[in-house]
Amino acid sequence: PYVNTKDILEKANKEYYAVAAFNINNLEFLQAIVEGGIEKKSPLIIETSEGAMKYAGMGDPLRGASLFVKMVREFADSLDIPIALHLDHGKNFKYIISAIKAGYSSVMIDASDKPLEENIKTTKDIVRIAHAAGVSVEAELGKLAGIEDNVASSESVLVNPDEAKYFVEETQVDFLAPAIGTSHGAFKFKGEAKLDFDRLKKVKELTKMPLVLHGASSVVQEMVEIAENYGADFGGSKGVPSDILKETVRLGINKVNTDTDLRMAFVAGLREFLHNNPKEFDPRKYMDTAKAYVKKVVSDRLELLGSANKA
Ligand SMILES: O=C(COP(=O)(O)O)N(O)CCCOP(=O)(O)O
Ligand SMILES: [Zn+2]
Predict the structure, then answer these.
(1) pLDDT in tens, 216-255
(2) Closest C-alpha residue for ligand 1 atom 11
(3) Is 204 exposed, middle or buried (0-12, 13-18, 19+ CB in 10 A)?
(4) pTM of the model
(5) Which of 7, 13, 86, 204: CA 20 to 30 A from 77?
């Protein structure tokens, strides 16, 4: 069934597991993610960034949002696993309202680059509108390093746990993304991978609410090797190691944003297939391996996060 993200996360919060939030931009990634969810009998959070809404809507975010709602609902309404659709990194008021209007389960208002009081005010405005429409809300505190689509923030600003408590009380958001040292993309750490577990623990103690980890891809070595075998150059790529990811779940992370791992799996499959089948041009054939590799990464992640058999 098509459900509200909050329902999925409240259950995860109570039972101390995490649910992956997988980003999509097209049909093929959605198909692969849904196949993984069915195989693992796991709840799924499908999420789209504003860039994805523009991409699918050919420049028209409302059309993009509406297309994603229809695609996701088509799968969700016909399956036993709970599936939610979430707007990831909502920064533009028009896009956030478009997602609410189109029927998204939840939206993120990302005002993390603003001073605290401004982040609170903007977030409160969105919470008021979203809650009136039965839509749940995610916000972010602290800043991720790395490149986000429209915010190239060089250094990460880690969350202040006391600020987090004040923020959630003032804004009434439904789930919170505390920055604890991750960053978007495939180049997360120069040296050893390290996250601030102490801050995470404190934020959980102070807020007791479902928490979100952005920039949580692991950069799966198996996929890097396949892709590089067929011409990719992912030198220097490094993600969040599985044991560190599991520790964040143990400490209270319940939604785990995963995009890069699926992108790398897809392109590994595509490169491999195209190299080995020079005569093929049927998209149902050349997307096959790409989708299979995405499904594999999805299934492994659902297992790792503990949401398998929680549908
Ligand atoms: O946290 C993540 C993904 O983290 P990852 O890179 O570690 O997968 N996300 O919110 C995904 C952000 C995708 O934005 P865009 O479509 O503009 O490129
Ligand atoms: Zn993110």
Answers:
(1) 999 999 999 999 999 999 999 999 999 999 999 999 999 9
(2) 259
(3) buried
(4) 0.96
(5) 13
Residue type for position 182: T
Tens digit of pLDDT for each residue in 245-279? 999 999 999 999 999 999 999 999 999 999 999 99
Domains belonging to the chain, first-starting first, are: 5-218+233-258+301-305 (3.20.20.70)
C-beta 258 within 6 A of ligand 1? yes
Q: Are 86 and 138 in contact (CB under 8 A)?
A: yes
Q: Which atom number of ligand 1 is nearest to the Cα of residue 214?
A: 1
Query: Looking at ligand 1, which atom is closest to the CA of residue 261?
Result: 8
- Determine the length of the chain: 311
Dihedral sign (CA 110, 170, 134, 201):
positive
Cα 278 to ligand 1 centre (Å): 32
Question: With a cut of 0.95, is the ipTM above it?
Answer: yes
DSSP for 259-282? -HHHHHHHHHHHHHHHHH-TT---
Q: Is the CB of 260 under 6 A from ligand 1?
A: yes
Distance 281 CA to ligand 2 centre (A): 34
What is the Cα–Cα distance from 100 to 128, expressed in whole angstroms?
12
- Buried b or exposed e, range 41-55, using 16+ CB within 10 angstroms: ebbbbbbbbbbbbbe
Respond yes or no: is residue 196 known to be catalytic: no
